[in-house]
Design brief:
By secondary structure, this protein is of the alpha/beta class. It is built from eight helices and five strands, in the order E-H-E-H-H-E-H-H-E-H-H-E-H.
């Protein structure tokens, strides 16, 4: 039995979801203590973090797009088995920076290898487990890319950050399609608003979904 609550954070590059997650964690960690698990994809444990390093290494320019999608799914499976499922079984609130929707948007649409094919691959990897809530931080591609160029450490710019604007446009369009198809799970926040407003709105969604923890 999985008695915990699983919430994912999604958004195009530069949407500010990771910063929002950090701000939210700072507010709720003192309250929840060890009932809170913060994790990320790809990553979340040593095996998945090793796969992450391969995927995002800017030197790996020869990586085939389907290889990339399979690596994300493999990292996700290990992350689920080793990190997420045990936390949910222990009645924890799990906040995850990216999950399946990222693969559908980035590999399925961005890489143009097929959203349905990538979704099916991840159905197998996750055994169909989806978050109870996905907080989607929405920004136009040009806004996100400008933020990356202006604020991100050049050493932290990865293979996906350096893609052309058309790639990021396809990613955002896929996210919006996902949100329209699953409005009960995926809640959109306008991430062009002031950071404190974005954090406040995201935290309200989390508290509504995970009322038992607050």
């Amino acid at each position: 039995m999985l008695s915990g609550t699983f919430i994912s954070f999604e958004g195009p590059d530069g949407a500010g979801k990771t910063s929002a997650l950090q701000a939210i964690t700072a507010q709720i960690a003192p309250v929840l203590g060890d009932r809170l698990t913060i994790t990320r994809e790809p990553g979340g444990n040593p095996i998945s973090e090793s796969i992450r390093a391969i995927i995002l290494d800017r030197a790996n320019t020869a990586m085939d797009y389907r290889t990339e999608a399979l690596l994300y799914a493999a990292a996700r499976r290990q992350h689920l088995a080793e990190t997420i499922l045990p936390a949910l079984a222990a009645d924890k609130l799990v906040l995850c920076d990216r999950y399946v929707d990222s693969s559908v948007a980035y590999q399925g649409a961005g890489r143009e290898i097929g959203e349905a094919a990538v979704a099916q691959m991840n159905e197998f990897a996750t055994d169909g487990l989806l978050p109870e809530l996905t907080v989607y931080f929405d920004v136009p591609a040009e806004v996100g890319l400008h933020r990356i160029q202006a604020h991100r450490d050049p050493q932290k710019v990865d293979r996906l950050d350096v893609e052309q604007a058309a790639f990021h446009d396809r990613v955002r369009a896929a996210y919006l399609r996902l949100q329209a198809a699953h409005p009960e799970r995926i809640k959109l926040i306008d991430a062009t608003q002031a950071p404190e407003v974005v954090v406040e709105q995201a935290l309200a969604l989390i508290k509504h979904t995970a009322q038992a923890y607050f």
